[in-house]
Design goal:
Layout: H1 2-20, E1 22-29, E2 44-51, E3 54-62, E4 68-74, E5 85-88, E6 93-95, E7 104-108, E8 120-121, H2 124-131, E9 136-141, E10 149-152, E11 154-155, H3 161-178
Antiparallel strand pairs: 1-2, 1-11, 2-3, 3-7, 3-8, 4-5, 4-9, 6-7, 9-10
Helix pairs in contact: 1-3
């Protein structure tokens, strides 16, 4: 009986995740991904959440080799190609580092005073482009006003409903085999 409950719980979690309509995305920004590429060793990270048609974001840029001036979401474009600005990420907020991590700039939604931007409301076409990895994040500096760091935005793979149900069924079968007759 306990295993049946586990299978039902796994199935319910999978259905709930699909029903909520929240999709996660990520970007890893480097100088090598810029067009044209540059040799900046800085690696920045971005996370994005699409909830229905509302996009929120958080992009952290370590303050190592340059000061961030601005950040943008641009597209549609494949890696190696450029495209116009879709959304301005607003002014970056400097943060002190902690536990050995360097200080960093943060671009984030929602907008708070003069800092940050968004969240952004997307059209159906924009959602399709985002899910197709046709958008990228571009961070600029005084040294590289066209772009210091760039990272394509990719969807985070979600656990497959069938895989979750299969896991539950496998556990159930294994437990059933171990029971003494």
């Amino acid at each position: 009986m306990k295993t049946s409950g586990l299978i039902i719980a796994l199935f319910a979690c999978a259905l709930k995740a699909q029903a909520q309509g929240t999709i996660q995305f990520y970007a890893t920004l480097t100088g090598a991904d810029e067009v044209p590429p540059n040799s900046d060793p800085t690696i920045a990270r971005g996370t994005f959440t699409l909830d229905g048609n509302i996009l929120n974001f958080l992009v952290d840029v370590p303050i190592v080799t340059f000061s961030s001036l601005s950040g943008f979401i641009q597209g549609p474009a494949l890696p190696g190609s450029t495209a116009p600005v879709i959304f301005d990420l607003g002014a970056p907020v400097p943060h002190s580092g902690s536990q050995g991590d360097p200080p960093f700039y943060r671009f984030a939604s929602p907008q708070t005073g003069p800092f940050g931007a968004g969240p952004f409301t997307l059209t159906a076409d924009q959602i399709t482009q985002l899910q197709g990895s046709l958008w990228y994040v571009n961070i600029t500096s005084a040294m590289q006003p066209e772009g210091q760091l760039r990272g394509q935005i990719f969807q985070v793979p979600e656990p497959n409903t069938v895989a979750l149900i299969g896991s539950g069924a496998t556990i159930w079968l294994l437990r059933k085999r171990r029971r003494p007759k």
